[in-house]
Amino acid sequence: MNEPIAFIGAGNMARSLIGGLVADGWPEDALWAVDPNPGQRETLATQWPGLHLGEDGAEAISHADVVVLAVKPQVLDEVCRALAGAVQARRPLIVSIAAGVRSADIERWLGGNLAVVRCMPNTPALVGCGATGLAANERVSPTQKAVAESILRAVGLTVWLDDESALDAVTALSGSGPAYLFLVMEALEDAGVQLGLPRETARLLALQTAFGAAKLALESDEDAATLRTRVTSRGGTTERALQVLETGGLRELMAQALTAARDRSRELADQLGRD
Ligand SMILES: NC(=O)c1ccc[n+]([C@@H]2O[C@H](COP(=O)([O-])OP(=O)(O)OC[C@H]3O[C@@H](n4cnc5c(N)ncnc54)[C@H](OP(=O)(O)O)[C@@H]3O)[C@@H](O)[C@H]2O)c1
């Protein structure tokens, strides 16, 4: 599965995806990347000399079976409208990683009647540990779904959603989720300092604990609740701390936070798809 792919926008995310694909054995000369910024193109050329690089989106699309839209959401409408002719001439699979822009809007800006997969990755994709939700419109074939999945799997875990509207919940959970966990890490570090630990010691212990807990949970057959119970001895220190977190309303607070993020995701999609 080495379909020619054109990346429109060659910033952080496109770079991670290209790196993941090349590491997975995708030939560099099957990849095109388009960006107006010479600095971005230079970075890519140094890292992957076999890549096709340029400023002309239409030219790149004329070679591609898959077009990955990797520009900022705010410029996506303008970028799509400029490329509509080239896309309609070639009719490739469209894969959008732009946060919060609905596939129906992308399809409309590109001239309509296109196979579109909309993805919601998160920032750990930049280190190959992303979590991405994907949703396909009715024109995407099973083969195209497999191609879209292999592009995003190059930077981490992928999950398909039957209904695109579920991507608002994905945005609330895993899209914004790294920030919630950074907040927890900050809070752990600060609390450790308050208990007398040196700042750097507290920081390293907080980070490694978060990483180790996630790795243990991912590699275990047990769910998080079972793993939690297992480290909570009756009358011990963990039990005492968990009582404070439960009575303080951590679960309710998390539910409220995700609901607020989900609602904001809907609002942003309405705004971005207005025209
Ligand atoms: N970063 C993440 O972890 C993450 C997570 C989830 C979703 N996403 C989504 O991924 C997309 C890309 O994010 P990013 O972090 O990679 O952004 P980025 O680093 O800013 O990259 C976007 C690139 O697109 C270029 N560009 C602007 N107009 C263009 C055009 N007409 N044709 C081709 N390229 C054009 C930009 O150039 P200039 O700099 O010159 O404008 C920039 O180099 C966004 O839609 C974002 O919502 C990112």
Write out key terms for the chains shown.
275 residues, alpha/beta, Rossmann fold, ProC C-terminal domain-like fold, 2 domains, eight-stranded mixed beta sheet, 8 strands, binds NADP nicotinamide-adenine-dinucleotide phosphate
Task: Provide an overview of this structure.
NADP(+) binds at residues 8-13, 70-73. The protein has two domains: 5-167, NAD(P)-binding Rossmann-like Domain (Rossmann fold); 175-268, ProC C-terminal domain-like fold (Orthogonal Bundle). The longest helix has 23 residues, at 250-272. The model has no long low-confidence stretch (mean pLDDT 96). With 275 residues, it is an alpha/beta fold. It has twelve helices and eight strands. α8 (177-194) crosses α9 (199-219).
Secondary structure blueprint with pairings:
Blueprint: E1 5-8, H1 12-23, E2 31-34, H2 38-47, E3 52-54, H3 57-61, E4 66-69, H4 76-90, E5 93-96, H5 103-109, E6 116-120, E7 130-136, H6 142-153, E8 156-160, H7 167-175, H8 177-194, H9 199-219, H10 224-230, H11 237-247, H12 250-272
Parallel strand pairs: 1-2, 1-4, 2-3, 4-5, 5-6, 7-8
Antiparallel strand pairs: 6-7
The protein binds NADP nicotinamide-adenine-dinucleotide phosphate.
The site of NADP nicotinamide-adenine-dinucleotide phosphate has 27 residues, from helix 1.
